[in-house]
Design goal:
Elements lengths: L1 E9 L2 E9 L4 E6 L12 H11 L4 E4 L20 H12 L5 E7 L1 H8 L7 E5 L13 H12 L2 H8 L5 H11 L8 H10 L6 E6 L3 H10 L6 E4 L9 H16 L1
Parallel strand pairs: 3-4, 3-5, 5-6, 6-7, 7-8
Antiparallel strand pairs: 1-2, 2-4
Helix pairs in contact: 3-7, 4-6
């Protein structure tokens, strides 16, 4: 495995990418979420790329326009429709022997891949897609139910309830919200569904069970989608050791599928 840095063009701007090279003919394109640079939060994506490359698959990461080293204006995930295909083209130019490519994104990077119909990738791994249009901090009913289910498994929480250390008023309000009907799909979720619908390659929808973004996605998308797989005990960025291994295994399975 070797790592090298390169630049490529996107509508007249210069984008910076990193290739973790390997001999395999199935490669991974990592799309960064939010305003993260290509190394990811606390270099998490860089470590993931190195691990995937060590398993025999080349990995390409990049800074979209206006982020990190790249020039241009930051248009957010909705404005990255040109950035992802440009990165994929640069990846294929560097590795002309690639047989297939898997696109991976977490949070709004997953949403960007969905909105753009896969952006030219052959397969998709989409983690905790962002479907929240107006973030008021409120938890969706599914997230509240998950929180209460976790509390009921904790003996300390049951003792707090039995000894009157839990506000019954807050508990009643939470139970009422948990029992409420799921929200109507957001316009963003509908746009993502429409963007992904024509994509005919394999799709994995990964949800970290402890993540509010993932819980909101399931509520907006519908939990009956057979492509959804949940990672127990995982937070948004899959930072827990077991969750990191789980994510790695999901991506490798997509690459080798």
């Amino acid at each position: 495995m070797s790592r090298r840095h390169l630049t490529f063009d996107c509508d007249g701007d210069t984008l910076f990418g990193t290739l973790d090279d390997a001999a395999g003919d199935a490669g991974l394109l990592i799309v960064s979420g939010g305003n993260e640079i290509r190394s990811g939060a606390f270099a998490g994506q860089a470590r993931l790329a190195a691990r995937i490359a060590a398993a025999g698959h080349p990995v390409f990461r990049f800074d979209r326009r206006g982020i990190g080293d790249s020039t241009g204006e930051n248009g957010g995930f909705r404005g990255s429709g040109a950035d992802i295909p440009a990165a994929l083209a640069a990846f294929k130019a560097e590795r002309p022997g690639l047989r297939r490519t898997v696109g991976f994104g977490n949070c709004d990077a997953a949403s960007a891949l969905m909105l753009d119909g896969g952006a030219g990738c052959d397969s998709l791994v989409l983690a905790n897609p962002w479907t929240i249009e107006h973030d008021d901090g409120a938890l969706p009913p599914e997230a509240i139910r998950a929180r209460y289910a976790e509390k009921l498994k904790n003996p300390k929480e049951l003792v707090r309830l039995a000894t009157g250390k839990v506000s019954l008023r807050k508990l009643a309000g939470g139970l009422l919200r948990a029992a409420s009907a799921p929200p109507a799909p957001t316009t963003l979720a509908q746009d993502m569904q429409a963007g992904l619908a024509p994509f005919d390659g394999p799709v994995r929808l990964l949800v970290a069970e402890r993540d509010r973004t993932g819980q909101a996605f399931v509520a907006a998308w519908g939990g009956d989608d057979e492509r959804i797989t949940r990672c127990p005990g995982a937070s948004h960025a899959f930072v827990e050791p077991a969750a990191r291994d789980w994510l790695f295994e999901q991506i490798v399975a997509a690459l080798e599928g």
